[in-house]
Amino acid sequence: MESKRLVNNVYHDRQTPIPTVIRYVIAFSLITLAWLGEGSLVLAEDYELEVIKSKQLLLVKKGTEIERSYHVAYGMGGLGTKHRSGDSKTPEGVYRVLDFGKDSKFYYFMQLNYPNLLDAWYGYKNKVISGDEFEAILSAIRNTSLPPQDTGLGGYIGIHGIGQVNSEKLHIHNEFNWTDGCIALTNNEINDLRQYVSIGTRVLIRE
User: Under a CB-based contact definition with an 8 Å cutoff, are residues 154 and 178 in contact?
Assistant: First the structure.
């Protein structure tokens, strides 16, 4: 299980210079991963979203049943998870919807809690973010608030529409993965999706 591997990595990584990182990971990993959705149960009345990047699909699921499916575009950086700001990749993992933006230039925006614990740990281990930034991300996750969006890991990842509609935009959306790392639907589709999504909705993104 990924959470066990993460804690083991913290114990055995002799390069980790700050003991507070170890304390945070051990103290909050179970709480954090429960919030993020790893190993958690989805209540029968709740919907969850699953994004399959290689198939350009977003599925709305209720338990094991698929309620709706949508064609999506994702990051123009291609397959593989997001590692840093500017790579134009869509992250892979388990996230939650934390906020909604009705005035987005992309019509409507569902903010995800990227970066999550695993994003932060690997970002710290690969020296993309500092120890202080790692702790700030963990603190935000513990408080179920939005993690810092201006670190080397990037931010402002979410699900959104395409903005002002014209035939060229619709053609690009249907034929290409065009975003900077977000997941895009048409405006009509994200209007439809809104009925299934609330604050805390679980979003699984996988290749």
Answer: no
pLDDT digits (tens, 9 = 90+) for 101-139: 987 799 999 999 999 999 999 999 999 999 999 999 999
DSSP at 148: P
What number of H helices and E strands is found in the chain? 6, 8
C-alpha to C-alpha distances, 169 to 73, 76, 150, 172, 199, nearest whole angstrom: 12, 15, 29, 5, 29
Edge-first strand listing for the sheet containing 93-101: 65-71, 57-62, 48-52, 202-206, 93-101, 109-112, 158-160, 183-184
Instruction: Determine how many CB atoms are found less than 10 A away from the CB of residue 184.
Output: 25
The phi-psi region of residue 20 (left if phi > 0; otherwise alpha if psi is between -120 and 50; otherwise beta) is alpha
Q: What is the SS3 assignment for 75?
A: strand
Structure-token pair, residue 165: 């509609």
Q: Percent of the chain scored above 70 by pLDDT?
A: 78
Burial of 173 (0-12, 13-18, 19+ CB in 10 A): buried
54 burial (CB, 10 Å; 0-12 / 13-18 / 19+) is: exposed
3-state DSSP helix/strand/coil % of the chain, to nearest 5: 35, 20, 45
Q: Token pair for residue 43?
A: 């209540």
Strand ranges inside 74-184, DSSP E = 93-101, 109-112, 158-160, 183-184
**Region 2-206: CATH code:** 2.40.440.10
